[in-house]
Automatic annotation (TrEMBL):
This is Class E sortase. The keyword Hydrolase applies. Coiled coil: none annotated. Gene3D superfamilies: Sortase. Residues 1-35 have a biased composition (Low complexity). Transmembrane segments: none annotated. It comes from the Bacteria. Residues 1-59 are annotated as: Disordered. InterPro entries: Sortase, Sortase_dom-sf. Residues 36-47 have a biased composition (Pro residues). The keyword Hydrolase applies.
Length: 229
C-alpha cells in the first residue's frame, strides 16, 4: 500500500437471513362435538348346535349298519334279559341281532348307558363273522324311526363266560366298570371267540354252545342325525 493512502476498510459480510420457524404445533384436543355415526348394535352369540342328542333310553327294535363290515340295515330285536341268555340265543338263531334290556341288560338305542347288541359269528347267518376286524374310529350306525345314532368304536375287550366279574363288566352301564354311574351313550357289540379259543386249545362251552370268551367292541355316541331321504 502507498504511503498517504487511506487504509481500506474490510468488506462487510452480509449476515445470513434468519430461517423462518414453523409455527408451534398445538396439542390435539379431542372434539366435543357429538358423533353422527349410528351406535353399533351388540351382536348375538352364535348358536352352536350339539353334535348329538341322546334318547330317553327306551328299548326299541332298530336297524344296524356297520360300513367297515359291509352290514346295512341289520334287524336288531330288543328283549328283556341279558347277553347271550336263552331268549337272546333264540333271536340270534333266526339270523338277526339281539339287544337285551332290563336290570341285567342295557339301555335302548342312543340312551345314556350301555346299548348292547349280540349276534352269531360262526353259525346262522354269521352276521358278526368279521366283528374282530373293527378298528378304533370305525363308525356304527343305529337307526330308530327317523333318527340315526352314530357311534364310534373306541376299544376292544374280551369277556369270559366263566368269570362272573368279567360278565358284570360286559353288562355294566359303563362297560368294564360295574357300579359306575353312566354319563355317556355307549354301545357294546359282542360275538363269540370260538375260533381263537379252539386255536388255543380251549373247547369249553355252555348249554347254548357259547365258548368261554366273547369279543366285545365298545363305542361312544358321537353324532345324531335325521334319516336322509
Amino acid at each position: 500500500m502507498a504511503e498517504g493512502e487511506p487504509a481500506a476498510s474490510p468488506s462487510a459480510v452480509p449476515s445470513a437471513e434468519p430461517t423462518p420457524r414453523a409455527p408451534a404445533s398445538t396439542p390435539d384436543v379431542p372434539s366435543t362435538a357429538p358423533s353422527t355415526a349410528p351406535p353399533t348394535a351388540p351382536q348375538p352369540e352364535p348358536v352352536v348346535e350339539p353334535a348329538f342328542t341322546v334318547s330317553d333310553g327306551t328299548p326299541r327294535d332298530a336297524l344296524l349298519t356297520i360300513p367297515r363290515l359291509g352290514l346295512r340295515g341289520v334287524d336288531v330285536r330288543t328283549y328283556r334279559g341279558f347277553t347271550d341268555d336263552a331268549p337272546g340265543h333264540a333271536i340270534q338263531n333266526t339270523g338277526i341281532a339281539a339287544s337285551p334290556h332290563g336290570p341285567r341288560g342295557g339301555t335302548g338305542p342312543g340312551g345314556i348307558g350301555n346299548y348292547q347288541v349280540t349276534a352269531h359269528r360262526t353259525s346262522s347267518t354269521r352276521l358278526f363273522e368279521f366283528l374282530p376286524d373293527l378298528r378304533r374310529g370305525d363308525l356304527v350306525k343305529v337307526r330308530v324311526g327317523d333318527t340315526v345314532y352314530v357311534y364310534e368304536v373306541r376299544t376292544t375287550r374280551i369277556t369270559s363266560f366263566r368269570e362272573p366279574r368279567s360278565l358284570r363288566e360286559q353288562r355294566a352301564a359303563v362297560p368294564g366298570r360295574p357300579g359306575v354311574e353312566p354319563t355317556r351313550a355307549m354301545i357294546t357289540l359282542s360275538t363269540c371267540r370260538t375260533r381263537e379259543d379252539h386255536a388255543e386249545g380251549n373247547y369249553w362251552s355252555d348249554e347254548f354252545d357259547n365258548p368261554e370268551h366273547r369279543i366285545d367292541k365298545i363305542g361312544v355316541l358321537v353324532r345324531t342325525r335325521p334319516v336322509r331321504g
